[in-house]
Design brief:
Layout (H helix, E strand, L loop, with lengths): L1 H9 L1 H16 L8 H20 L9 H22 L2 H4 L1 H4 L8 H27 L11 H25 L3 H14 L15 H4 L3 H15 L5 H12 L1
Helix pairs in contact: 2-7, 3-4, 3-7, 4-7, 4-8, 4-9, 4-11, 8-11, 8-12, 11-12
Length: 240
């Protein structure tokens, strides 16, 4: 692993160049450009607010539903987008892979970096929502970088593994959208962790995104320290 990391560091300029290329390719010849990075989580937030706040009255632990859902949709969109673009990246660039040598990990990692750029753009809207809903900062915000690092490492782990499998088993490209959709509903995006029955939570927390989403909500919106039991599950997952 150390040898692989050294190789990636040696090719860091290529990695950076390819990530910038991915960003440009995504929004080339589009009318709205990078605004699409904001539109996806924002539009889902509007739909979720109408359906699950006005119609179904899903509890939110006292947090206004728009910012409650957006706080989860923002990191989830980063995760789902990384998978969507990263998994087929090696196969899509097979013409380069077969011609010259460089670390094949460049393609999926660059896709994650490009999705992270979208995440940062969409985060501007979240900051505006925090001001609008008067969310006061707390010392718990100091743990947000830790949660973000864990999420990035988890995302890289999932994307690298799935992109490698996709080279040998092309069924992966069909399975990934289904798994991602089911995974979203198994993650506390629409609803809070508190509505999950107590007896089910140990099994529920095996989903590594549970701890990550719950940590963002607690630290940013509720001013509480994250549940490190849940968060450690995500850390253990990417380590494995």
């Amino acid at each position: 692993m150390i040898s692989d990391l050294r190789t990636l560091v040696a090719y860091r300029e290529l990695l950076w160049t390819w990530a910038l290329r991915d960003i440009k390719v995504r929004y080339t010849q589009t009318v709205m450009g990078v605004a699409w990075a904001i539109l996806q989580p924002f539009s889902m937030m509007v739909i979720f607010t109408v359906v699950f706040s006005l119609f179904m009255k899903v509890p939110t632990d006292g947090i206004p539903y728009p910012i409650f859902s957006y706080s989860a949709l923002l990191p989830w969109s980063f995760f789902a987008s990384s998978i969507s673009f990263g998994v087929p990246s090696v196969v899509n660039n097979s013409n380069l892979v077969t011609k010259i040598y460089f670390p094949r990990e460049v393609f999926p990692i660059a896709a994650v970096m490009a999705s992270f750029a979208d995440f940062l753009v969409a985060a501007v809207i979240f900051m505006g929502m925090m001001v609008f809903y008067r969310v006061a900062p707390s010392w718990a915000l100091l743990t947000v970088p830790l949660t973000l690092i864990i999420q990035i490492l988890l995302t890289l782990g999932v994307v690298l593994l799935a992109s490698a499998l996709n080279v040998f088993y092309r069924d992966v490209r069909f399975v990934i959208p289904l798994v991602t959709q089911l995974w979203m509903y198994a993650t506390p995006i629409i609803y809070p962790v508190s509505i999950v029955p107590e007896w089910l939570r140990p099994a529920y927390s095996l989903n590594p995104m549970v701890g990550i989403i719950d940590a963002y909500r607690k630290t940013i919106l509720a001013g509480q320290w994250p549940d490190f039991n849940y968060l450690s599950m995500a850390a253990v997952t990417f380590s494995a």
